[in-house]
Amino acid sequence: ETGVTQTPRHLVMGMTNKKSLKCEQHLGHNAMYWYKQSAKKPLELMFVYNFKEQTENNSVPSRFSPECPNSSHLFLHLHTLQPEDSALYLCASSQNTGLVRETQYFGPGTRLLVL
Amino acid sequence: GESVGLHLPTLSVQEGDNSIINCAYSNSASDYFIWYKQESGKGPQFIIDIRSNMDKRQGQRVTVLLNKTVKHLSLQIAATQPGDSAVYFCAENTGNQFYFGTGTSLTVIP
Questions:
Q1: A109 at the B interface (CB within 8 A)?
Q2: Long-range contacts of residues A98-101, Cβ cutoff 8 Å, at least 24 apart
Q3: Using the beta-carbon criterion (under 8 Å), do A42 and B101 form an inter-chain contact?
């Protein structure tokens, strides 16, 4: 266990549905991240939160909406997704201020299938 | 953009043998590197890291080698075990963002 949990582990949704992914870290970290992992592609950074403030948004479509109520919890709200959004969504956390040279610890991911 | 690649998409080794997984990176300004292991159905798991002021770092059964001259990173696993079967990928950090490779799938043959 890495200290980062994600729920649900699997999700199937239609294109008109609204769902949310949840991430919780028990490591006392201050930075949290959402990544998308598609088959045979590198991890794609989506969002970064540092001390609950969003510091990065890597040109992610607005149908993905993150929320970080505190340093331990991170949500990804999904609405009107497309089939090409089907992927493994990974949450990660790191100790301090954002991306710079800090080891990131990943959760198990949510396997999302959009029909 | 960054290019973090692996020389081989798959690697099969006999149990007990040593494994070597390679990674090439393109940004000479990258100064921090991580190797991750990802088992089926799980998220990436940190294995070992190295900073650019070093050229070798050892962990438990794993060694990472960094050759900045040719922008090459390798992960060596000693006495490979069935539990080592997974996808391994490297990540580089330029001080702005991590860039990840696509991964090498390691299969350990009993």
A1: yes
A2: A98/A31, A98/A48, A98/A50, A98/A55, A98/A56, A99/A31, A99/A48, A99/A56, A99/B93, A99/B96, A99/B97, A99/B98, A100/B93, A100/B95, A100/B96, A101/B31, A101/B32, A101/B51, A101/B93, A101/B95
A3: yes
